[in-house]
């Protein structure tokens, strides 16, 4: 296997707030990585050739192992590069619990504010794509409701921002103290999105002076050391490598999944996305990883979080 088999490749695009979370994570760990820029809108054929259909942003690739969702990305980065840690306190489990809120309700609220504030100004294809992804089948009504409900949505955002502002009011550099942690990246990405994509964002955030100081500290971390890479080169990398993920079973597995079972995996929300099919490699409380065979590439192992994803056993 070539030396480059352990090189980190991030499939992303600059405007993606969730990709910004991953980029900040690279900065916290001071990592070197390769960036493959993907389209903002589907179809994304070069990406889905690796993932088997998953089209959300970002996706991390290391050799022929593909990591979908920042839950998987951060967990794998911590495993491979434990120092400096994403978890500098004794509250690792609590931080993962909190991440389900930052990545769920908090980010959903940011999406509603940003998309709702645009009203009819969103390009039709972008409105349909993101609306379907975040609001489900009745996305047009969801966008309309977000626009009409914008003052309420903004009011709902003030409470968590004030909580974070209070946490930082003792002058600490980051949310847990002197060292940046995963939770800094997980909260930062929603605020980065709000500031950069809502025309009222900067004025709205100006109330929270400690939070603005913290934002600057996170921004100063940077994104590690990035160099570009073409999607063709990333696919070639997967083809020249073999997945390194080993089978793992869990005696408490709630769905009775075992290595070798054929399953599909898809996000819990009906965003109109194609499920990814493959044979189970890992099934535990954190991860579902499946092995798939892709023409012209070979075997690829695709990793998903268990939280927020539905696994369906195929006959």
Taken from the alpha-carbon principal axes, the silhouette is: globular
CATH class membership of the largest domain = Alpha Beta
| Main sheet attributes: strand count, strand direction, barrel closure | 10 strands, mixed
Please report which band the strand proportion falls in: under 5%, 5-15%, 15-25%, 25-35%, 35-45% or over 45%: 15-25%
| Spatial sequence of strands, sheet with the most strands | 5-2-1-3-4-9-8-7-6-10
Task: Decide which structural class fits the backbone.
Answer: alpha/beta
Q: What's the overall average pLDDT, rounded?
A: 96
Poorly predicted runs of 5 or more residues: none
In helices, the fraction of residues equals 40-55%
Number of domains: 2
Spatial extent as radius of gyration: 20 Å
Q: How would you describe what is shown here?
A:
- InterPro entries: Glutathione-S-Trfase_C_sf, Glutathione_S-Trfase_N, Thioredoxin-like_sf.
- Keywords: Transferase.
- 45% of the residues lie in helices and 18% in strands.
- The protein contains eleven helices and ten strands.
- It has helices at 17-29, 45-51, 70-80, 92-118, 124-135, 139-148, 150-167, 182-197, 201-205, 209-221, 231-240, and strands spanning 8-12, 32-37, 59-62, 65-68, 225-228, 262-267, 276-283, 287-294, 298-305, 309-313.
- By secondary structure, it is an alpha/beta fold.
- The two termini are 35 Å apart.
- Helix 1 (17-29) packs parallel to helix 3, helix 2 (45-51) runs parallel beside helix 11 (231-240) and helix 4 packs across helix 6 (139-148).
- The chain has a ten-stranded mixed sheet, with helices on both faces.
